[in-house]
Design goal:
Elements lengths: L1 E12 L4 E7 L11 E5 L7 E4 L2 E3 L2 E7 L3 H7 L6 E8 L12 E6 L4 H12 L5 E6 L8 H7 L2 E6 L6 E2 L12 E5 L2 H10 L4 E4 L15 E4 L2 E4 L6 E3 L8
Parallel strand pairs: 8-9, 8-12, 9-10, 10-11, 12-13
Antiparallel strand pairs: 1-2, 1-7, 2-6, 3-4, 3-7, 5-6, 13-16, 14-15
The chain binds flavin-adenine dinucleotide (FAD) and FE2/S2 (inorganic) cluster (FES).
């Protein structure tokens, strides 16, 4: 984990509520796709955790949805402004298990962390299929970026206004070697039930410290309690116990 100050390079809306922010700073502590950064905001006691979407040298991209006061504050930031970040947080995805034809399943703002994962897997020569799920056409983000990587991309919308109608689980390819997923918990549960192979799930929990000190994000797994910020946010399919 590293604490450092980043400069906002770009902060622009992708949809009515979702923004892409590009930051410049010391990204050395970010080593694996699926990790997150924890952002300090003026006047807010708790940092806000956001997944790493992309990394190019000292440039970090995050994509975030405005859901409350902290993210609304981020949306008002202009290029040149500074942000204090904790970087290199979380375990990230384990790429070594992907097999040759990994499947990536993302829902809403669970899509961004899959971008760096797809990029790294494609760099390793893997044949990557991506299914991106949204409620409606106006919420679709990152489709072109995944296509530009060379991934086989399917978009689903719950209302059928774009791509194929339904949920990501309605568009699973017949063949895949392994899967990686990130999205809202109801989607993760559906993916858990619908998938036939092993895979990895990234969870979003309310967080206190974000680096393992407060136990505020603990959840019970098959192998005991794990802190989502430290031993997660990525858990293997076989270790998940759903709190139904
Ligand atoms: C590991 C991790 C990675 C994340 N990555 C992203 C990302 O890439 N893009 C993105 O848009 N969001 C991401 N989130 C969620 C993001 O942290 C919250 O949306 C943000 O902290 C809300 O701050 P706020 O002050 O705007 O909202 P608040 O006023 O704090 O809360 C507003 C609403 O958001 C919900 N919320 C708040 N914090 C979280 C949280 N940690 N997880 C889930 N729901 C929350 C609250 O329950 C409430 O309904 C991630 C969360 C975690 C734990
Ligand atoms: S948020 Fe403090 S231990 Fe995870």
């Amino acid at each position: 984990m590293k604490q450092s100050v980043f400069t906002v390079i770009q902060n622009e809306p992708l949809t009515d509520t979702v923004f892409r922010m590009i930051l410049c700073g010391d990204t050395a502590a970010i080593t694996v796709p699926g990790q997150f950064v924890n952002i300090a905001l003026d006047g807010r006691y708790l940092r806000r955790p956001v997944s790493v979407c992309n990394l190019e040298d000292n440039r970090l991209t995050i994509i975030y949805k405005v859901v409350g006061q902290g993210t609304a504050q981020m949306a008002r930031m202009a290029p040149g402004e500074k942000l204090d970040l904790l970087t290199g947080l979380g375990n990230g995805y384990d790429l070594s298990k992907s097999g040759e034809r990994p499947l990536l399943l993302g829902g809403g703002v669970g899509v961004p962390p899959l971008y760096l994962l797809a990029r790294r897997l494609i760099e390793q020569g893997k044949c990557v299929a991506v299914v991106l799920g949204f409620n409606t056409k106006d919420e679709v983000v990152c489709e072109d970026e995944f296509r530009a990587l060379g991934a086989d991309v399917t978009v689903t919308t719950a209302d059928g206004s774009y791509g194929s109608k339904g949920f990501v689980t309605d568009a699973l390819p017949r063949e895949y070697s392994y899967f990686y997923t990130c999205g809202p918990e109801p989607m993760l549960k559906a993916v858990y039930r619908a998938t036939k192979t092993d895979g990895q799930f990234s969870f979003e929990k309310r967080m206190g410290c974000g680096f393992g000190a407060c136990m505020g994000c603990s959840c019970k797994t098959v192998t005991g309690y794990k802190r989502i910020c430290r031993e997660g946010p990525v858990l293997e399919k076989g270790e998940i116990l759903w709190n139904v």
